[in-house]
Design goal:
This protein is an alpha/beta fold. The protein contains 19 helices and 16 strands. Helix 2 crosses helix 11 (about 265-280), helix 7 (about 165-180) crosses helix 8 and helix 14 (about 310-320) packs antiparallel against helix 15.
């Protein structure tokens, strides 16, 4: 049964003949992924996210932005996705631990189309701790991580590697990776010591494609081989790959994915800004991505103004989009109000219809000093030999006001009015209970009751105790008299 589920899940994301946006640190965030999809990319990888960082996150449905956010303990959004990309986005993680990788994959798998393990990034932030390209020297760990993921989740698993110094070593590694059951493998056609200025080894990618039966995704052809959309097919042919993955070419101008040709850069940048504003992207990330698009134009007046911008609003001003900023913020505020109103209505109309409710509020000016409805309710419960009243208080997210429900003799009582503090809310709940039961609540001018009098009377004590206290008082009085006489002498 599980094998059938896995096959069905894998079928949803096919890696044959696809245009793919590669994982890119600081670039592969939600705005860029959505823009790439708009222009023709069929699969988009998020930036590499380290497993330890992701493991600490909690999943939050953001009703205002209509996104799913994975939020760190410091409230920073580590990964944000939305329904538009759900069947197209692959979550890439940096990991060197099978169980931690599985924990993260299980955390996100219902919100993404696939899971990828980074085994190719040569930079220190990725290789430290044995992640990224460091894994290439540990095939046993590669195999263990991938087998754990393939077995543990239903979404397709992929990995992205760099080639090894020899074709034979690379083919041997890739065949071992294939045996784990991964759905595809992305290959950056350079060894870990090489950089973009070095030529990509198309022949090695082709040897890999010939040696395995799973889809091979060719990566590393930006600038050298892929300058316009029509070059993608040529690069695919040179490498014999199933699909092509673009990084720098997509970063410089994501309209590279358009079959009808690349669009003017400034138009693309404006479209990117729209997504960044709509999805409340961190302004520093927005600026970084725009700077990558401008490249050598950063010294132009436009580039200098962009470099000086310190918020998404200022970025909009640079591109003459301030009106768009205002309209979007206004729309988000309206959506926020609607969401909060919906939450308020839900909080104010709970499903517990058995609760007795009255529209009352406690005003301490109506009561004598140190006399409260809670005291009267507690006294009455004791006299009736009932359990002590139990108060349950909730806080409303809209304005942080409180409302309390008191349980007395198996019945619940609550005020429909929200109060500024927890103590006031409990007093209001006590009033509802007392009025419903026809009991006094201690208000000034209220008809005297046994409960009120009991609070005003001195505590009654047994007769024997009174006699003992009288004898003690007499003895003390004699001693005081003796002391007084001695003092006079």
């Amino acid at each position: 049964m599980k094998e059938q589920v896995i096959k069905e899940a894998a079928a949803k994301l096919c890696f044959q003949n696809k245009l793919i946006m590669a994982p890119m640190v600081r670039v592969g965030t939600l705005p860029m992924r959505l823009l790439a999809l708009d222009y023709g990319a069929e699969i988009v990888y998020c930036e590499e996210i380290i497993d330890i960082k992701m493991q600490q996150c909690r999943r939050v449905v953001n009703e205002i932005l209509e996104t799913v956010d994975f939020v760190a303990p410091d409230e920073r959004v580590i990964f944000r996705t939305c329904e538009r990309e759900k069947n197209h986005v692959v979550f890439q993680m940096g990991t060197a631990d099978p169980q931690r990788a599985l924990t993260v994959a299980q955390l996100v798998e219902n919100d993404v189309a696939g899971i990828d393990v980074n085994m190719g990034c040569p930079k220190e932030y990725s290789t430290k701790g044995g992640m990224g390209a460091a894994l290439l020297s540990d095939p046993a760990k590669i195999e263990l991580i991938l087998r754990t993921l393939v077995k543990g989740i239903i979404k397709p698993v992929t990995c992205k590697i760099r080639i090894l110094p020899s074709v034979e070593e690379t083919v041997k590694l890739v065949q071992r990776i294939e045996s784990t059951g991964v759905a595809a493998i992305a290959v950056h056609g350079r060894i870990k010591e090489e950089r973009p200025q070095h030529p990509v080894h198309c022949d090695t990618i082709k040897a890999i494609a010939d040696a395995v039966s799973i889809p091979v995704i060719a990566n590393g052809g930006s600038s050298e081989h892929v300058k316009v959309h029509s070059d993608i097919e040529v690069f695919q042919s040179l490498t014999g790959s199933s699909s092509v993955m673009l990084a720098r070419a997509a970063m410089w101008n994501p309209s590279i994915f358009r079959k009808d040709g690349i669009l003017p850069l400034e138009h693309v940048m404006r479209e990117y800004i729209k997504y960044a504003v709509c999805y409340d992207n961190y302004h520093s990330n927005t600026k970084y991505c725009l700077c990558q698009m401008l490249r050598e134009k950063m010294e132009t007046p436009l580039g200098k103004r962009l470099h000086a911008a310190q918020s998404n609003q200022e970025i909009c001003q640079v591109f003459g989009m301030e009106e768009y900023w205002k309209e979007t913020q206004s729309a988000l505020e309206i959506r926020k109000s609607a969401v909060e109103l919906g939450r308020q209505e839900t909080e104010e109309q709970p499903n517990d219809t058995d609760v007795i409710q009255l529209p009352v509020r406690f005003d301490k000016r109506e009561y004598p000093p140190q006399i409260t409805p809670k005291m009267f309710l507690l006294e009455w419960s004791r006299r009736e030999k009932l359990p002590q009243p139990v108060y349950e208080t909730v806080q409303r997210s809209l304005d942080r006001f409180f409302r309390s429900t008191v349980t007395v003799d198996g019945k619940q009582f609550r005020s429909t009015v929200w109060d500024k503090s927890k103590k006031l809310a409990e007093q209001s709940a006590a009033i509802v209970c007392l009025r419903t039961l026809g009991l006094p609540e201690g208000k000034i001018g209220e008809k005297e009751s046994n409960l009120v009098n009991k609070r005003k009377r001195e505590k009654e004590v047994p007769y024997e105790k009174i006699e003992e206290e009288d004898e003690s008082a007499k003895s003390l009085s004699k001693k005081q008299n003796v002391a007084t006489k001695n003092a006079m002498l």
